[in-house]
Amino acid sequence: MSKQVAEIIVETLQSAGVEHCYGIVGDTLNLIARSLERSKIEWVSVRHEEAGAFAAQAEAQLTGHLTAVAGSCGPGSLHFINGIFEANRNRAPVILIASQIVRDELGFDFIQEVDFKQIYKSCSVFCDMIYTPEQARRKTVIACQTALAKRGVAVLIVPADVSASTVHDDIPYAVHVSEPVVRPSDADLDEIADILTNGGDIAIYAGSGCQGAHQEILAVAKKIKAPIAHTSRGKDFLEFDNPYNVGMTGMLGNEAGYHALLDCDTLLLLGADFAWRQFYPDKAKIVQIDIDPTHLGRRHPITKGVVGDVRATLEALLPKLVERTDSSFRDQYVRRYAKARESEKAKAVAGHDGSIPGTYLTEVINRHAAKDAVFSSDDGTPAAWLVRYIETNGQRRTFASLLHGTMAGGMPSALGLQKSQPGRQVICLAGDGGLSMLFGDLMTVVQEQLPIKIAVYDNGKLGFVEIEQKAEGMLDTFTRLKNPNFAEVARALGLWGQTVSKADELEASVKDWLAQPGPALLHVHVSPMQLVMPPFMAAAPAVGMALYSARAVLHGRGGDVWEMVKENFL
Predict the structure, then answer these.
(1) Domain carrying residue 376
(2) 308 and 202, same structural domain?
(3) pLDDT tens digits, residue range 367-413?
(4) Which of 153, 369, 418, 520 could cross-link 516 (Cys pair, CB 3.0–4.6 Å)?
């Protein structure tokens, strides 16, 4: 029985587990769109392809399932690129169907011709074109299988004439993906056990590769008496029900996690690829376990590196470990973390003048959000407050652009999260700059009838960028934003909208906002001078802040300096 290539592609996507395809239709995509309409895959029309890619990668991260995006030739499929970079860096299995002009015109600078292989090869695990109709099923299978097996983006380029062609003898290739148990050899495990047995002050640093290994990590920590620090992406899997937790290190971390890692003499690094080298211990022996061989020793020199799934590896390692009796190192940092948390919570209160710090807004949302809520945030200060003040409990999940660091990902990521989890509360912590960058897809939220709750942190500027400038001794440059009343815009687009500017009105406003049955936007005027304070103060940023203060005073802006001091230090 003969089939059109467009049908074969969609049939293969469906068999690979794709449930949603995000995109914008166009001429070269029309036949694939028609096949999607006839399939069980739900098409989600977005207003900008970049938003579709953010949505797809968030869905893929949350569910682990392959998710699709599809675009027309030239600029249509090109618009996905930033979200595709985000997906690939997050190891999210996403497939991009990039429709292309007809084959006869390729290579002649035809209108809307783009070399997608050249463009997308640096941000994908697979990127190739279907050259003949007979390749359609086989190449679509390879694309899907590679995205799932390598956890990344597959780009399948489909010329319009190929998608319209018919295949008469279609060979039944199919997607096969298994989840093997991967762990090091017994000899490697013996060597790791020996390093840990002979270690003095041992710490564990765990990342997103520890998903599903909560029990095993706690069992190891209990046996070797180690505090557990985690990355921001490991927060969801390690923060809850963890008596050995000392939080995060790095610029968004706390002093307990920061010093526990720097002060240890032996570090067990689990499923973590934290990029900032200055936060690793210089003289400690480091044992690294990671499923990706390319991660071993690429951030900092290590003593022993092995390839393995964290859960399976620790299960096999645990019987080989010698029980330690001295827990003084661990206990010291657990106590220090408890004090740091108390200090953080004490700061998450209303401002001196009834203003609303971003930390206070986040703390209120944290208290009233559902126990199994899913959170997304824009990059910058909303992401900082997300990882510091949203408490996970084994049910909640948090998502931010922590590897790619892009603006505008918060709201469209929430779109994909809600689409894949229709009965779950989805909350977006949006920056005023990030939300306005992809404003148009608020209409997608309304069109799809998604009950997303969006909180806009309106400080009238690119806040995190301004903090970086101040740390370099600069006056704020090109960071100011002239914002609309976001609540009025939301209401005009069909969402529930409300603005709040006073701290004594915040609690009731947040409850009202979260109680709305449909999409709702809470526009909050947050304190513009609040800083994201690191767990330590390095000399260069301290000098930079002093220079900024002096320059601000000399430019007649002493009031800004006083507001910053009141907001952060009094």
Answers:
(1) 348-569
(2) yes
(3) 999 999 999 999 989 999 999 999 999 999 999 999 998 999 999 99
(4) 520
* Cβ atoms within 10 Å, residue 550: 12
Q: Residue 6: its pLDDT value, please?
A: 96
Same domain, 391 and 322: no
Residue 81, φ and ψ in degrees, nearest 5: -60, -45
Q: Is residue 461 domain-resident?
A: yes
**Terminal C-alpha separation, the chain:** 77
Sequence-separated (6 or more) residues with CB below 8 Å from residue 80: 49, 50, 52, 53, 69, 71, 96, 98
Closest to 380 in 3D by CA, of 481, 449, 300, 303: 481
Nearest Cα to Cα of residue 376 among 462, 286, 454: 454
Structural domains in the chain (count): 3
Question: 399 and 375 in contact (C-beta within 8 Å)?
Answer: yes
Give the end of a domain, one of 168, 199, 229: 168
pLDDT score of 178 = 84
- Whether residue 476 is contained in a domain is answered as yes
Contact 17, 65 (CB under 8 A): yes
Query: How much is the pLDDT for 475?
Result: 74
Which parts of the chain have pLDDT scores under 70?
Answer: 463, 467, 470-471, 474, 533, 535-570
Distance CA 140, CA 137 (A): 5
Same domain, 240 and 359: no
Distance of alpha carbon 404 from alpha carbon 3, whole angstroms: 40
Kindly list the distances between the CA atom of residue 511 and the CA atoms of 240, 253, 358, 455, 522, in Å, as whole numbers in the listed order: 25, 29, 17, 12, 11
Asked if residue 180 is part of any domain, the answer here is: no
182 neighbors 206 (Cβ within 8 angstroms)? no
Tokens of 176: 């096969």
> What pLDDT shows up at residue 548?
46
**Whether residues 32 and 157 fall in one domain:** yes
Supply the pLDDT for residue 557: 54
DSSP, collapsed to helix, strand or coil, labels residue 266 as: strand
Query: Rounded to whole angstroms, how far apart are CA atoms 220 and 318?
Result: 6
Residue 536 pLDDT = 62
So what's the pLDDT on residue 550? 52
Please say whether the beta carbons of 432 and 455 come within 8 A: no
Cα dihedral 511→516→517→519 (10° resolution)? -120
pTM of the predicted structure, to 2 decimals: 0.92
Asked whether residue 176 is assigned to any structural domain, the reply reads: no
